[in-house]
């Protein structure tokens, strides 16, 4: 795990000293302290921490207002609330304000370090996934097509996809669950889809349903194999695929998900094939 720099926000000199001793004993660098909203803004801007411990009760403000101010400066900074107050209503409000974990006072050193390590490891794990998934799924599609139809493909274009787009005629969507959730989508024209299905079945499909079923299973295998490769890179990902959803028709529009995805356009022996895949952060499980 990369070096963690922490700012402690608390109006109690005792709490600050106590937290500092726990953190420094665990080789974590405390880069600043604050007890008011203005001090929080100033110290976060000057020290650029990657994590803040946040008391809920502060002079003239509260932990949630300070958390919002921190995220206005840098929304990648993690906030762990460390407070004597802890009930369902406060916890829900903390989650709504993008707090990453909640530890109740009196602070247990092991509990605090577990929360910190889980929050920061999750960040690095998602970074690993973001850096790897596009290449892995592209390779998975290439390998799946080669093994199941004895043909190859060439990628012609790749770009980040943020808007809805019009399907060529046949779309298979595979939901992905695990530590992080996401989706893989394959899109074909009707002609390409029929040709791919024929190659997969080694005969002409009997009807449209058989064509769609063949494409769905192909997409399921591609996504399952890609997820297995990613899980081998780090088993904490725990990725699994959900049953495919199949859509077809004229003027079919695929809505953009609420998270970043990558689209790759492949030229195959059967025609153009579109691969779209992406992941989002799942809600953290608090301890």
TrEMBL record:
<keyword id="KW-0597">Phosphoprotein</keyword>
<dbReference type="InterPro" id="IPR001789">
    <property type="entry name" value="Sig_transdc_resp-reg_receiver"/>
</dbReference>
<dbReference type="GO" id="GO:0006935">
    <property type="term" value="P:chemotaxis"/>
</dbReference>
<comment type="function">
    <text>May play the central regulatory role in sporulation. It may be an element of the effector pathway responsible for the activation of sporulation genes in response to nutritional stress. Spo0A may act in concert with spo0H (a sigma factor) to control the expression of some genes that are critical to the sporulation process.</text>
</comment>
<dbReference type="InterPro" id="IPR011006">
    <property type="entry name" value="CheY-like_superfamily"/>
</dbReference>
<dbReference type="Pfam" id="PF00072">
    <property type="entry name" value="Response_reg"/>
</dbReference>
<dbReference type="InterPro" id="IPR028976">
    <property type="entry name" value="CheC-like_sf"/>
</dbReference>
<protein>
    <recommendedName>
        <fullName>Stage 0 sporulation protein A homolog</fullName>
    </recommendedName>
</protein>
<feature type="domain" description="Response regulatory">
    <location>
        <begin position="5"/>
        <end position="120"/>
    </location>
</feature>
<dbReference type="GO" id="GO:0000160">
    <property type="term" value="P:phosphorelay signal transduction system"/>
</dbReference>
<feature type="modified residue" description="4-aspartylphosphate">
    <location>
        <position position="55"/>
    </location>
</feature>
<dbReference type="InterPro" id="IPR051015">
    <property type="entry name" value="EvgA-like"/>
</dbReference>
<dbReference type="Pfam" id="PF13690">
    <property type="entry name" value="CheX"/>
</dbReference>
<keyword id="KW-0145">Chemotaxis</keyword>
<dbReference type="InterPro" id="IPR028051">
    <property type="entry name" value="CheX-like_dom"/>
</dbReference>
């Amino acid at each position: 795990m990369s070096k963690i720099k922490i700012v402690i926000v608390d109006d109690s000199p005792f709490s600050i000293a106590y937290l500092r001793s726990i953190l420094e004993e665990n080789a974590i660098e405390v880069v600043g302290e604050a007890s008011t909203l203005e001090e929080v803004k100033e110290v976060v801007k000057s020290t650029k921490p990657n994590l803040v411990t946040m008391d809920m009760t502060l002079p003239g403000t509260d932990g949630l207002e300070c958390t919002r101010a921190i995220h206005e400066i840098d929304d990648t900074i993690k906030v762990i609330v460390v407070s004597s107050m802890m009930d369902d209503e406060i916890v829900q409000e903390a989650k709504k304000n993008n707090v990453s974990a909640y530890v109740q006072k009196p602070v247990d050193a092991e509990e605090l370090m577990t929360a910190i390590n889980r929050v920061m490891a999750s960040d690095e794990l998602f970074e690993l996934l973001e850096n790897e998934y596009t290449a892995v799924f592209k390779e998975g599609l290439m390998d799946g097509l080669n093994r199941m139809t004895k043909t190859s493909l060439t990628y012609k274009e790749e770009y980040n996809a943020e808007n809805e787009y019009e399907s060529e005629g046949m779309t298979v969507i595979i939901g992905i669950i695990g530590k992080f959730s996401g989706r893989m989508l394959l899109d074909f024209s009707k002609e390409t889809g029929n040709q791919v299905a024929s190659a997969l079945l080694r005969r002409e499909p009997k009807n449209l349903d058989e064509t769609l079923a063949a494409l769905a299973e192909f997409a399921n295998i591609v996504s399952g194999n890609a997820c297995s490769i990613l899980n081998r890179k780090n088993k904490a990902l725990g990725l699994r695929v959900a049953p495919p959803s199949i859509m077809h028709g004229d003027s079919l529009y695929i809505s953009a998900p609420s998270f970043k995805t990558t689209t790759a356009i492949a030229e195959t022996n059967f025609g153009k094939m579109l691969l779209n895949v992406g992941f989002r952060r799942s809600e953290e499980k608090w301890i």
